[in-house]
Amino acid sequence: MSQSAKQLAEFGKQHISRGISRSTNLVIERAKGSYLYDVQGKKYLDFSSGIGVTSLGHCHPKVVKAVQEQAAKLNHAQVNIVFHKPMLDLIGKLKPVMPSTQFDSFFFWNSGAEAVEAAIKLARHATKKQNLIVFQGGYHGRTVGTMSLTTSKTIYRGRFGPLMPGVHVAPFPYCFTCPVHRAVPQKHNIINCCDNPIEQVELLLKQQTTPDETAAVIVETILGEGGYVPPPKSFFPKLREICTKNNILLIVDEVQCGFGRTGKMFAIEHFGITPDILVMAKAIASGFPLSCIVSNKELMDTQPPGSMGGTYSGNAVSCAAALATLEVFEEEKILENVNNRSSQLFSLLNSRVKSLLPPHIGLDIRGLGLMVGLEFTGVPPGFAAAVAKAGVENHDIILLTTGIYETLRLIPPLTVTADEINDGVERLSQAIDMALKKLEKDGNI
């Protein structure tokens, strides 16, 4: 960093809330496609996508043009006062890509946490029941309501209590850390789940919250902040069955894993079931604040007018960005690229990265599409963070950690090219090699 960049970073540290954590001290001036540029003009390959937000890459020209034109025409039309055309056009474009034709009623808000809050409000209003079931390792936001549902890390909720009551926690099918899998890995694994998490949900309904007082089950299709963990194929059909049998709504949180990230428009499409409420945000508007819940009109109509809303709900400029995003998905065959680049990425990770590791260090490579987790075992605490640090400081790549274990997450843009995947894996490999050499030098390997 030049002195001026250091001064800017120090200014930020002094005047931006200490409660915000930051994985780097970079001061970014501009971005394009898969790259960030700092104030010195130094270029970084971005495998974070702003935590899954800039899925079409930074500043996609079609999205930029739509935003510029909309900002000059109408930048705010309050949703409780008027209809505005960008929202109506967006709904028309969203309906055909929904995972079910049942999804025909939408409510737009600003952030993922607000959308989860809206889903909770809808579930409680519609069922006239209060309790909620969530899953261990889940992340649903940082508002008082949503951090009450979040169990991925204690930092998100520690010392903020008392939290919202009526929340009960069941284990998520995290097969890599499951004691049953570890005891008999050949018998029970992600292909042949032991079904303990499903049994625990059924037990919970007998011991902690009755079906008559349980409004909804809320679950991420793939754990995000909890470690980038996809469940076994059998999990969601069995969970859907439990919810249907007990008249409990199933809310699927796709804030991080939705909008093409897994190779399908929504990750729940991999599992062959339809939730009652679907939550989306992050990538929906390519970097502009917009979130949404969608359900069927019958369920949505249980809420009286005035019970939902917000000053910036469904902002016109953000809706225009989302509409352009969907058009790019069609025109540039984004899902096809995700699946092609996913196959390439998994192949390289299995051949290149695994070969770097000494025999006593394990690596679980998991995920769907371009939502990929790398969990290391046999390494000291902080190893994944050391790899991310080496990546940004020595190899000009932005990598993020996730979860409470030693896990990296790879979130390249959905527009990433084959050359950028090759380059990214090479830079990642160099960062891992550097972190391993430091362990060896420090006598920890």
UniProtKB/TrEMBL annotation:
Q: Keywords in alphabetical order, please.
A: Aminotransferase, Pyridoxal phosphate, Transferase
GO molecular-function terms, A-Z: identical protein binding; pyridoxal phosphate binding; transaminase activity
Keyword Nucleotide-binding present in the record's keywords: the answer is no
Coiled-coil annotation: which residues?
Answer: none
* Domain of life according to the entry: Eukaryota
InterPro entries, alphabetized: Aminotrans_3, Aminotrans_3_PPA_site, Class-III_PLP-dep_AT, PyrdxlP-dep_Trfase, PyrdxlP-dep_Trfase_major, PyrdxlP-dep_Trfase_small
**Is DNA repair among the key words of this record?**
no
Q: State the needed cofactors, names only.
A: pyridoxal 5'-phosphate
- Family per similarity comment: Belongs to the class-III pyridoxal-phosphate-dependent aminotransferase family.
- What this protein is called in its record is 4-aminobutyrate aminotransferase
Taxonomic lineage is:
Eukaryota, Fungi, Fungi incertae sedis, Mucoromycota, Glomeromycotina
